[in-house]
Specification:
mainly alpha; 2 domains; two-stranded antiparallel sheet; 20 helices; globular; DUF112_TM; membrane; transmembrane helix
């Protein structure tokens, strides 16, 4: 009850006209930045940080919270409509969300994303309010061995689940891992796969890879099939900007599962919401294979609902981890930590005692931001969907232009534009020959985490590999991974036997 009373006082501070204005402005700016390919909430917060020093801390952090959550909404909008995620956290939403948009359900896809983001963020905010003091206990159980097990789980599970061909999935994963190793080795200081090119010493940016593989590669693929697959884009944006009751019931379990998957990752520092969004997508895809008529690959609403809820629940918990522990588990949280220090504040347990007005007003603003973003995005879902009314040549030319602008804005180097072009050709070839894109992206995102974790684990144990399986958490993760692999193998065998029987039956029918 004490937490509830403090939260009510926080609402009293957050609901002043000035603070409401900062919440609204932050949500609008975050959404606007999020729809730009290659940009995201972390860049928005970094750019706006110097401009907020004239504000009092409460107003500044309420504004940043709006930008943080609004950026996730904007990322999802472009991921769904243009297959162009602003950040890696929206990648999983492209797989089914973009297919929904291309099949004439763009407004419903955007509504699914908005409601999922609201549910995930709202539930996470409730948990943060009542359980912030207990967050430290969860994060202390994870060390290098546990992080490596988690990364390995994501590698194998994603490669085996999201692809109909396991060899193709593993091949895509290897490409992603290879890209992640380019640059100067942080431990030995040696060059790796740079070919002596100085511009590659810092590695290849995840922004360049995601924009190249998911956006510009898609442009090339569409252009290569333009004459063969003539489509009317005007039919794609038709539809109601809300969900039917049946669609809501279909998405609700996925929203809840995604929220549950995403919340623990807001405390575990694995780099942000990329891991839980991929895991939520993988869980829904695996469950979809058990249904009489699988929908994944055709625009499954659950394949969009789960990653959206997972990403926003992770974000909500990440803000709680930052406030309660001083633990930044994502790039944006790290920038916010720097902002706290600029104001002479140190996030952690003492922050709740020394600055309760700021903390509880900020927590209250999370709920307000969720409602504001839902109000902003649901009515405008059909308006955003009208982007698909643009004639195809202009639409994809515009996407290509924004891809280049987004990548150039993050680095300011012409070399990255050439890199963008080269990697987009790889993306085009992968689409052309049926290689999945998700394993490549997750290999790129989690490759550095896996490498750093296994090195730290082996260094701490003097090279003893048994440390990788020395804790109950690692046993649990590897056990779940073994179950996932067995289920995947069984599913593949059953599918192959079924196909053979169908072929045999059809051959007998022809003979008869």
């Amino acid at each position: 009850m004490d937490s509830l009373g403090l939260l009510m006082e926080g609402f009293a501070g957050a609901l002043t006209p000035a603070n409401l204005m900062w919440v609204l402005l932050g949500c609008l700016l975050g959404t606007a930045v999020g729809v730009m390919p290659g940009l995201g909430s972390s860049m928005a917060v970094a750019l706006l940080l110097p401009m907020t020093f004239a504000l009092d801390p409460t107003a500044a952090f309420i504004f940043f919270a709006g930008v943080y959550f609004g950026g996730l909404f904007g990322d999802s909008t472009m991921a769904i409509l243009m297959n162009t995620p602003g950040q890696a956290s929206a990648i999983a939403s492209t797989f089914e969300g973009h297919k929904m948009a291309m099949s004439g359900r763009a407004p419903q896809a955007l509504a699914t994303a908005a409601i999922g983001a609201f549910i995930g963020g709202f539930v996470a905010s409730v948990v943060v309010v009542f359980f912030a003091p207990l967050l430290a206990d969860l994060s202390t159980y994870f060390g290098p061995a546990e992080y490596f097990a988690l990364a390995l789980f994501a590698f194998v599970a994603t490669s085996s689940v999201v692809s109909d061909s396991v060899p193709k999935g593993l091949s895509a994963l290897v490409i992603g891992l290879g890209i992640s190793t380019v640059g100067i080795d942080s431990v030995t200081g040696t060059e790796r796969f740079t070919l002596g090119v100085p511009q590659l010493f810092d590695g290849i940016s995840i922004v360049t890879v995601t924009v190249a593989i998911l956006a510009l590669g898609e442009v090339f693929f569409i252009a290569s099939r333009a004459r063969r697959d003539k489509q009317d884009l005007k039919t794609r944006s038709a539809g109601r900007p809300w969900l039917k009751l049946a669609e809501f019931r279909e998405a609700l379990p996925a929203w809840l599962r995604g929220t549950a998957i995403g919340m623990p990752f807001g405390v575990i520092p694995v780099g942000g919401s990329e891991v839980p969004t991929f895991l939520a997508y993988s869980v829904e895809r695996r469950l979809d294979t058990r249904r009489p008529s699988p929908m994944f690959g055709k625009g499954a609403i659950r394949g969009l609902a789960a990653p959206e809820a997972a990403g926003n629940s992770t974000t909500g918990m990440a803000m709680g981890a930052l406030l309660a522990l001083g633990l930044p588990v994502s790039a944006t949280a790290a920038i916010l930590l720097a902002a706290f220090r600029q104001y002479g504040l140190q996030p952690g347990p003492l922050l709740f005692d020394r600055n309760p007005d700021l903390v509880w007003a900020l927590l209250a603003s999370f709920f307000i931001a969720m409602v504001v973003l839902l109000i902003i995005n649901l009515p405008f879902a059909q308006l955003w969907a009208k982007l698909l009314l643009i004639p195809q040549p202009y639409l994809y030319a515009g996407i290509a232009l924004f891809c280049g602008l987004g990548v150039y804005a993050t680095s300011g180097r012409v070399f990255d534009l050439l890199l963008l072009l080269g990697i987009s050709v790889v993306g085009f070839l992968m689409r052309r020959y049926g290689y999945p894109l998700a394993p490549l992206i997750i290999g790129m995102v989690l490759g550095p985490l896996a490498e750093t974790s296994i090195r730290d684990a082996l260094l701490s144990s003097s090279g003893d590999f048994t440390i990788l399986v020395s804790s109950p958490i690692t046993w649990t993760i590897y056990g779940i991974l073994a179950v996932v692999l067995l289920v995947a193998i069984r599913s593949a065998v059953v599918t192959r036997v079924r196909v053979r029987r169908m072929k045999a039956a059809s051959a007998e029918a022809v003979d008869a």
